[in-house]
Design brief:
mainly alpha; two-stranded antiparallel sheet; 2% strand; elongated; BRO1_sf; RHPN1_2
């Protein structure tokens, strides 16, 4: 009536259509159709805002949403909260689509990677565009943590996609897998560091934080296992490409043991074995740490399959290390360098 000087009844149908769309967007389906529904509703909001919501005049129309972590209601008279909440929910839907993808297939893993990346993209848009939303789940710190969490899950799926067809037992393939695994570990470490900061720590389920720590240690241990296998199982032979192996190994380390070059390690059997075994020791201790983290959380106790994966990975590194361990040797306390 204020905008058109018309009786509201003139636009009853249009208002009813808009309210139907808004009502439907409260319970979208957990698939692409649900995202499209939210996007359709979102596209109406700037048009409505420009026409009916003057910055100098309050309309008396309230919008209420609930914080997804605390359940605390947030109520405002402007459309900013409405727009931000719809974007947040689109990101949440993409994360659910990613989680429900079939990760036993290349196609399913591709869908999962794409969905987690889209979720990160929607959250980045939220962080950059809506800077003063009153709901804690949309605060810059919380959204920053959620962006990292989505990227970590996408990176984990990239690792799985590379590993799914099988890993070639060759020097360069094992080096590549070591670097892919350590990339997953690094991003989960960033997620974990975000989750243990106050006030995020008080508002995120504790098992999220523990799961991110489990994955940090698990994937770092896998990386050391792959690198140890590359060094111990693949001696540099006359038919191997020496330059290619040297380049691959030089990209794995930020810092080598003093007086060592990548070529020295590749050509010297004793040095290769010494560093390879040190990587296996780090793999074993990493898997033990992941299992210890797992044991700290009662919620994870329900995920028996996760425990089986962690135990199998630990056994694999132990068995492999025992193949190279010589009881008569003096214990070597050399610590393997970090993998980059």
């Amino acid at each position: 009536m204020e905008h058109y000087n018309e009786d509201g009844r003139t636009f009853e149908e249009e208002i009813a259509d808009l309210m139907d769309l808004r009502q439907a967007s409260r319970t979208p389906s957990r698939n692409e159709a649900g995202v499209e529904l939210l996007a359709k509703y979102y596209s109406h909001l700037p048009l409505i805002e420009n026409r009916f919501f003057s910055p100098t005049h309050q309309t008396g129309i309230f919008f209420t949403w609930y914080d997804s972590f605390t359940g605390v209601p947030v109520c405002q008279q402007n459309l900013t909260l409405e727009k931000a909440s719809v974007v947040f929910n689109m990101a949440a839907l993409y994360s659910q689509i990613g989680t429900r993808s079939d990760r036993q297939t290349i196609v399913g893993l591709g869908e999962a990677i794409s969905s987690f990346q889209k979720a990160a993209g929607m959250l980045s848009h939220l962080k950059e565009t809506f800077t003063h939303t009153p709901s804690y789940d949309m605060s810059p710190a919380m959204v920053g943590m959620l962006i990292r969490l989505m990227i970590a899950q996408a990176q984990e799926c990239i690792f799985e996609k590379i590993a799914l067809p099988g890993i070639l037992n060759k020097f360069n393939s094992l080096i590549k897998m070591a670097q892919e695994a350590v990339k997953v570990s690094e991003i989960y470490d960033q997620v974990h560091q975000s989750m243990i900061q106050m006030p995020i720590k008080d508002n995120v389920p504790s098992f999220w934080s523990i799961m991110s720590l489990v994955k940090t240690n698990h994937y770092r241990a896998i990386a050391h296992h792959f690198l140890a296998s590359a060094l111990l199982d693949h001696e540099l032979g006359p038919n191997d490409d020496e330059d290619q192996q040297e380049k691959a190994l030089s990209q794995v380390y930020d810092q080598l043991p003093e007086g060592c070059s990548p070529l020295d390690i590749l050509k010297n059997k004793d040095e290769r074995e010494r560093i390879g075994k040190a990587h296996f020791r780090r793999a074993i201790s990493g898997h033990e740490e992941a299992l210890r983290n797992y044991g700290l959380c009662q919620h994870l106790d329900k995920l028996k399959v996760l425990q089986e994966i962690l135990e199998a990975s630990h056994r694999r590194s132990l068995n492999k290390y025992s193949d190279y361990e010589n009881e008569e040797e003096f214990p070597d306390y050399f610590e393997a360098p970090d993998i980059i």
